[in-house]
Amino acid sequence: MSELASYERTGAIAKITMDDGKVNVMSGAMLSALLSALDHAEKDAAIVLLTSGREGIFSAGFDTKVLASRDPQQIYDMVRLGAELAARILSFRYPVVIACNGHAFPMGAFLMLASDIRIGADGPFKIGMNEVAIGIPVPSFALELGRERLVPAYLHRTALTGEMFAPHEAMAAGFLDRVVPLGSLQTAADAAAAALTKIDLAAHASTKQRLRKPAIERVRAAIDSEITLDAYRRRSTESPSG
Which of 4, 7, 19, 146 has its CA 20 to 30 A from that of 54? Predict the structure, then answer.
């Protein structure tokens, strides 16, 4: 398993820990490592606990250096991988728990929107979609995730203004299910994952598909129609304000 995403299985639970040594940027390498870790978990029929090995940061989101490069191939490769990862988690047949120990900028927040149980640490952290604040339209697949999981008024606030939320307000918005003291985060996440070992996983998978089928289909349609190499090639020829 890649150093970027370590994999540790204990019984029925697979702990996937992101750690790039910095701020867990969602580079192509990180996203590929996470997809490989999910493949491993699926083969193990394991409940997934996704967390960060970096203090105070879950993820800084997509690699802004790649976005700023205006290289259509690089941007397409990265954003497509991120969208596919979110879609994979949204429909993953086994439960996915996220332990968010700090800031979660957009791609990190998208993963929370796709997961089943989201537990966040209290602290001076920010969570949300800040794309428009830095001159990037929010991708349609992410808006579909937001429509599925966020309170509508909060979705409009974060998507249209780039507003980021502290943990308790992020919970009110729908990014998180619970907020606990930072020192209790790992214990709370472990307990949540352990509780899921008691449910019927086949029933979970079937119910998830029934419940999320419309959202899964909308996310898939958004990915396939919007995140294409041709689309990024067209954008690369436009002016930055175009």
Answer: 146
